[in-house]
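Example record

One chain of 145 residues, shown exactly as stored in the release files.
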Amino acid sequence: MKLGIKKLHKDSLIPERQTQGSVGYDVHAYCPASDMEIQPQQCVIVPCGICLQIPQGYDVEIRPRSGLSSRHLVIIPNSPGTIDSDYRGEIRVPMMNLSQKTFIVSHGMRIAQMVLRKSWEIEWVEMDTLAEAERGNQGFGSTGI
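Predicted structure tokens for this chain:
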């Protein structure tokens, strides 16, 4: 599948997979003037220096990189973030630091991953009752640990 991309700066980096089997394409921070600091318990919006042209019927999800989450406690608070096919603005990633130490984002750092997904239009069918299911209305924790 071809996906349109526009570099907003000549030194913006195009997302890339790290291995042949990777489904996510790593997204890079664009902050050439200086590093960005994320203080403990702070959320910062990190620019990526790119815009996308996503085909209608698809969307892109922005997901965390596991190493940043598990090793540094830096998360994407609205994960997964959704980029709709009609958005043409700069890709920017909210990053939140849950650790007790300042986290530094440097220019070109791989900060998130993006995944292209097929999206479906929904035609809602209002019903008075729904079909029975084994789980029923049992919610959080109902299937055990």
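Notes: Residues 4-118 form a domain with the Deoxyuridine 5'-Triphosphate Nucleotidohydrolase; Chain A fold (CATH 2.70.40.10).
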